[in-house]
Each structure stands twice: as structure tokens, then as C-alpha cells.
Amino acid sequence: MPVTLDGVARLALALPGAREGERRGTRTWAMNERVFAWERPFSKADLRRFGDETPPDGAIVAVRVADPGEKEAALATWPACVFTIPHFDGYDAVLVHLRQASTPIVRELLEDAWATCAPAAVVSKYKQDQRRRR
Known about the structure:
With 134 residues, the protein is α+β, with helices and mostly antiparallel strands. The chain has helices spanning 5-13, 44-49, 68-77, 103-115, 120-133; strands at 18-23, 26-31, 34-39, 60-64, 82-83, 93-97.
């Protein structure tokens, strides 16, 4: 079953200290004022860059990654739902096509994105708590 923006919100807000906000009319999720995920509709320029290729339809969410290596790993691990566009070249973030993504994939991407913004002690405690629950 595809993930919705409300589903993204539930997953993001389950992370300690995460808050929902809005920027330019779209939803954002942040930790300590640093946005780790945001709704990312395509701009007219983005759509032109697709040329003859059909752009993904439906909701798209951008999520931070720790570094270029993590970006490449996410792109390689989930090619059916994680992608990038020229606007994101050189930027540590990937795009997620929610219609193609499962909840476990989105959860993992959001947790990793949140961890790039959260204090190390908070991340460590969260990971310990998650291990105990499994």
C-alpha cells in the first residue's frame, strides 16, 4: 500500500523532537529548526527537465541524507521509489515517490534524515529504544 503525506507526517512525528511546519505552502518536518524532510512538488523547470520522460505522479517527499555516499546508497537500494533530479545535484537529499514506496522504506529514510539533524545523544537513545522493542 503506498504511503501518503499524512503517513509521512505520522512517521516523522513519531521521532523524538520532530515538528511539522510549512514552507512555501508545503509541509516540512524538522528537528531543532533543521528541516530533515519536506513535501517537494515539481516546479515548471523540473518538469521541463524531464523532457519526453514522464515525471513520477503523485506526492513526492525530499529527505536529507548524511553525505553523498548515503545518497548513492539510497538511490541504489530503492531505485523503484528513490530518485534525484538535476536540481538536487551536489545536495545531500533524495526524492521519494510515495506511490512506489512502502512504509518500512519511508520509515528508514525518515529516521536516517532525522538523525542528520538530531543531537547524537537523542539519536543514540532512540536507537537503543528501537532495539529493545524488537
